[in-house]
Specification:
The protein contains eleven helices and 17 strands. Helix 4 packs across helix 11 and helix 6 runs parallel beside helix 7. Strands 7-8-9-6-11-14-15 form a seven-stranded mixed sheet, sandwiched between helices. With 447 residues, the protein is an alpha/beta fold.
Length: 447
């Protein structure tokens, strides 16, 4: 190794001190500038780096190795007490390997970058009234929406074409397989979209739908295939895992365990996961699997979501063989709660909107960029085991695609609610036919 050769001649002390002082200032300035740039590029990077050395890491999904099985969380579960967050993190197979960059698509063309084109010749891909499995929450025309333009928009990537939907080809891809959607009500909407896209070519006496439950299954006998939905809005075990009774004041999760849900999803051949919306509803209580006294910790939703996704990523890392199982993750579905974000000085929401936003690169408050950064870091570390379906930006443009007041949720809206769209509009879910059909076209494209 080359060594610096210092002169034997004594140098004046004062100039040397000045020189070293200038070097110190220059290095400090460069370091500060680099740190600021990292914060702008990834605001969580520096925070996580500082915490890494002091964090305690917990190996997830190990409840089977405990002395006693932890009590299953349900809607009656409560925390005996709440203590300050201990700083525990999730340790998973292969380490975190954060901040690597993931290639979203194996192709040269980015199918997630494009524009919406009005196409009333080819769209919708099915009629709302022709799908017997349509949800009243998403059947906007049935519940009074008369402008049907939202059904006729086609997603057009900038430099290539999305693979054209072909129902017979999709069934051949699913022959002998289980396709399972796992997540919250937005993922359930994508599942309903997929069932509606597929069911028309299956004779009525050759198809069936199981009753709504934790796991709901659509079966097609001819193809020996199922299209399923598993209710798991937070991915990890929680007290909100009842598909009907989950509106609770206190949200409790086991941040280190997906085993309850994984017992059902592990046998699927194609898995489509999502999670996001439920983490934006305030603080979350953490009940670690090894905790014996029922003491919960409390954490903000975004940080709790990171723990849950790390536990999910541990399962993917350790259990998924990409040659035998395909795993997809659907990025966050944006909301359109404030019309002033696309129409300055207005005070409405998605109600009455009839056209997509035509400003390319638009971002509203319905897409949380720091959360997207966390998700990207975790998915990047999973390499070839997970394919990302990036619906966020393309769905951001579709302020016109939500049910607003044209839906039924448990019971129809009352006249006073219908007359007050700013307060009662659903600007979270999506009308069908509509935006989720394009999410499924993207899934078809990558299968």
């Amino acid at each position: 190794m080359q060594r610096w050769k210092w002169s034997r001649k004594k140098a004046p002390i004062f100039p040397l001190l000045v020189f070293f002082l200038l070097v110190f200032i220059a290095v400090s300035t460069l370091h500060s500038g680099h740190t600021i740039q990292r914060i702008h590029e990834n605001p969580d990077h520096v925070h996580n780096h500082q915490e890494a050395s002091s964090a305690t890491y917990v190996k997830p999904n190990l409840s089977g190795h405990l002395k006693r099985a932890p009590e299953v969380l349900d809607r009656f579960s409560r925390c005996n007490s709440t203590v300050e967050y201990s700083g525990r993190k999730i340790s998973r197979l292969g380490g975190s390997r954060r901040f690597s960059h993931r290639r979203v698509s194996p192709e040269s063309c980015d199918v997630f970058s494009g524009k919406w084109v009005f196409d009333n010749a080819s769209y919708p891909l099915y009629n709302e009234s022709d799908c017997p499995y349509m949800s009243d929450q998403l059947a906007c025309h049935k519940h009074g929406r008369s402008d049907l333009g939202y059904q006729h928009w086609r997603w057009q990537p900038h430099n290539c074409n999305l693979k054209r939907w072909n129902v017979k080809e999709m069934w051949e891809k699913l022959r002998g397989k289980r396709l399972m959607f796992v997540g919250d009500s937005l993922n359930r909407g994508q599942w309903i979209s997929m069932v509606c896209l597929l069911q028309s070519v299956i004779p009525a006496d050759k198809r069936s739908m199981s009753p709504n439950a934790h796991l709901t299954i659509f079966r097609a006998e001819e193809y020996n295939a199922t299209v399923e939905f598993l209710w798991a809005p937070l991915l990890v075990e929680s007290n909100s895992d009842d598909p009907v009774n989950h509106r609770l004041d206190e949200r409790i999760i086991r941040p280190d365990s997906v085993l309850k849900h994984a017992a059902k999803w592990k046998h699927a051949d194609i898995l489509v996961f999502n999670t996001y919306l439920w983490w934006r509803q305030g603080p979350v209580k953490l009940l670690w699997t090894a905790e014996e006294n029922g003491a919960c910790e409390e954490l903000e939703g975004q940080e709790a979501m990171e723990l849950a996704m790390e536990a999910w990523a541990d399962w993917v890392s350790s259990k998924v063989d990409p040659l035998k199982k395909r795993v997809f993750f659907v990025t966050m579905s944006p909301t359109h709660l404030w019309s002033r974000e696309w129409k300055p000085e207005s005070e409405g929401n998605c109600y009455g909107e009839k056209d997509p936003i035509d400003f390319e690169g638009y971002w509203g408050s319905g897409s949380d960029l720091p959360t997207m950064s966390i998700v990207e870091n975790i998915l990047s570390s999973l390499s070839s085991k997970v394919s990302v379906i990036n619906i966020t930006q393309l769905s951001e443009y579709r302020k016109d695609g939500h049910p607003s007041i044209f839906r039924k949720f448990w019971e129809p809206l009352r006249p006073e609610q219908l007359s007050n769209p700013p307060s009662y509009s659903d600007c979270i879910h999506w009308c069908l036919p509509g935006v989720p059909d394009v999410w499924n076209e993207l899934l078809f494209h990558f299968l």
